[in-house]
Design goal:
Helix content: 25-40%
Strand content: under 5%
Shape: globular
Number of strands: 0
Structural class: mainly alpha
Radius of gyration: 15 Å
Distance between the termini: 28 Å
Largest sheet: none
Order of helices and strands: HH
Length: 82
Amino acid sequence: MTKSDLVSKTELPKVIKKIQELYALPEGQPVAFSATTGAGRKDVWRLIKEGILDDGSEEDEDDDGNNLGFEIPDFSGIRSSK
């Protein structure tokens, strides 16, 4: 769930619970995420790691120096088609 910073801190748990029930999501989902504040970023990366990445990949760190346990791809050489 993106743009979580637009929901008040008191309403956020209610919104998350409603989405969880509506889509029959497991406990811990959806993850509230805000690109503006960075809230939920570690949880999103954890879910990505658990869901699609191999355990054998090289390890990397996030912006805070925390070991993510996997390598974040470097997309800096990829150019947009626009």
